[in-house]
Amino acid sequence: MTVSKLEQNRVNGYCGYITTIKQLRKHSNADRLQCATVFGNNVIVDLSYMEGQRIIYFPVDGQLSEEFACDNNLVRLKDENGNNVGGYLDPDKRNITALKLRGEKSDGLVLPIEVLSKYVDVKTLSDGDQIAMLDGHEICRKYIPRSNQRRGRSDFTGNKNRKEEKGKVFYPFFVEHIDTAQLAYNQNAFREGDTCYITLKMHGTSARTANAVEIVKEKRNYILKKIFNIRDKEVKRFAVVSGTRRTTLRNYDGGYYGSNAFRQKYQDFFKDKLPKGVEVFYEIVGYTEGNRTIMGRCSNKLVKDKEFEKQYGKETVFSYGCEPGENDIYVYRMTMTNEDGFVVELPWEQVQIECEKLGVKCVPTFEKFVFTTWDDLMERVEKYYDGTDPIGKTHVREGVVVRIDNRESFTAYKHKNFSFKVLEGIIKDKADAPDMEEAEELVVESV
What we know:
The protein has helices spanning 3-8, 66-71, 146-155, 162-168, 222-228, 261-270, 306-312, 348-358, 374-384, 418-430, 436-446; strands at residues 16-20, 24-26, 33-38, 41-46, 54-58, 62-64, 95-96, 98-101, 104-107, 109-112, 130-131, 133-134, 137-138, 140-142, 169-170, 181-182, 195-201, 205-218, 233-243, 278-289, 292-293, 298-299, 315-316, 327-337, 343-345, 361-362, 365-370, 399-404, 412-416. The chain is an alpha+beta fold. Strand 3 and strand 4 form a beta hairpin. Keywords: Ligase.
């Protein structure tokens, strides 16, 4: 498959990967199961799989299409006697989650490459190909629960007269949040000698504030425009503006939780502090108001791991040390953009200096190193990506981000730990507060 096709072959930023099984071992507590290592993840498979077999790997947080799942008998289906004659996936959700099966972790789903033969000649597929759509058939997409979809589409934007305002005032160089790709699938992105940083990945909602070029259109009289062939007047100036990962906030009414007021104080904070052209990207963590958390909370009993519950208590709340009603921000990126739209990415150490000047926190840094080999990088990542969150110290950390600092544009890759993936899967279906990040993706997709 061509590179251009691969770049487009994602739905909601998710895809499956063609690869080859290179490591198989017996399951430690089940005679009819094996464990395979795929992209560094342990995945449970049955005894039919063999070393060197070509497969498609679906990471957690994905959803198989109804057509693909039914074609391959992957969903639960009962016969007239009530016996399951299908697979194990929920017929409505068809989502892929991290789980433990008889003491072994299973981080994703592995299927033989032949399951794609209805849609493509599998001989044309190569290891590393990314699969989401084939010949017009959807294979998979990012999983977003239906409850999130309903709430997200109706409540997220909350700005009245949004189209009218958008036509009058706009910010051509107010850069959106960049989604961070998975580290495991981007080994080829690293070059020997790269300057790298390992930083904490935080579970909050993305935000951005910039002292950016603002263009205000002032409409002229229609008759004068016709007679003198003149256009509407445009006033160009710098102004401080804030937004979510995708949306420019023109007011703070509405919002995913009924109000974006918790974001406004950061707009007010940066308003008189940012030099012209500077844009700050940050995570907001903690609570919106009262006891309502920014990100979902979950009973740890649902994890079904006594050691996890013993370590982190009865409930996971991603508070990061904030008390109910409080929130905080952690900066993870800064840029400088001139009036012509030329963007300069600030190196990470410069970001840390600027944060100190501004009086704001930046995401914690674990280590700086020079890239030599993939094995060396992963040894370093293994030291930091799991364990208790170092800020609040009450919940598991999400993982880490590996940044390549000597690139012209922002280049970073995330690596989540297994316990967080299990929690994330449960929270999507069970938590009190759905994920506002995913709700916004649905709003953008539907516009």
